[in-house]
Amino acid sequence: MARISTISLWLMFLMTISFKSIAINNNYTIGAGDKIQISVYGEENLSIDELYIDNSGTFEYPYLGQLKPLNKTTEQLQNEIINGLKGDYLISPKVRISIIGFRSIYVNGEVKKPGGYEYQPGLTVDKAIALAGGFTDRAARKNVYIAQAGKDDLKNKVKLSSSVSPGDIIVIEQSFF
């Protein structure tokens, strides 16, 4: 009896993790620096284990030519591939797109190790600062800003508990005293 409940708990835990992953992938738009995986059921020659999205934002896909995944969700890219393969190449293609690596976030200013760090789902400003070695002695802990990727001139003042998105640039100002 105890073994069944332990197995049930593990299954619930694994389902929760996969639902979180699905929720991230459904709302997340693909950008330069992301790594994706394309799986086509039963078609190894159409599956790609790891594809890095570079600044051009395009890649060559068998039979379909140039695809542009930038600013598309995984579901939108999946539908584009399904619709392209359906009919002429496959009767009923089963395609799955997964994000296997997110673009980096950057932490600049008054931290011990400024630089780029790999984004992780659930990342907050305080966790990103911890990745960068923490605040320096001169950091203005209440003057923390985020510049979103592609909008470098627009910085928003944020709290340490604020969420971070892939590509964000976190800037910690210097204290005057």
Automatic annotation (TrEMBL):
Q: Which organism is it from?
A: Aliivibrio finisterrensis
Query: Which intervals hold domain Soluble ligand binding?
Result: 105-151
Recorded hits in Pfam families, A to Z, give:
Poly_export, SLBB
Taxonomy, superkingdom: Bacteria
| Molecular-function annotations in GO | polysaccharide transmembrane transporter activity
Q: State the SUPFAM superfamilies in the record.
A: Nqo1 middle domain-like (SSF142984)
Domain Polysaccharide export protein N-terminal span(s) in chain numbering: 25-99
Q: What is this protein called?
A: Polysaccharide export protein
Q: Which UniProt keywords apply?
A: Signal
The keyword GTP-binding is annotated on this UniProt entry: no
Print the organism lineage. Bacteria, Pseudomonadati, Pseudomonadota, Gammaproteobacteria, Vibrionales
InterPro entries membership: Poly_export, Poly_export_N, Soluble_ligand-bd
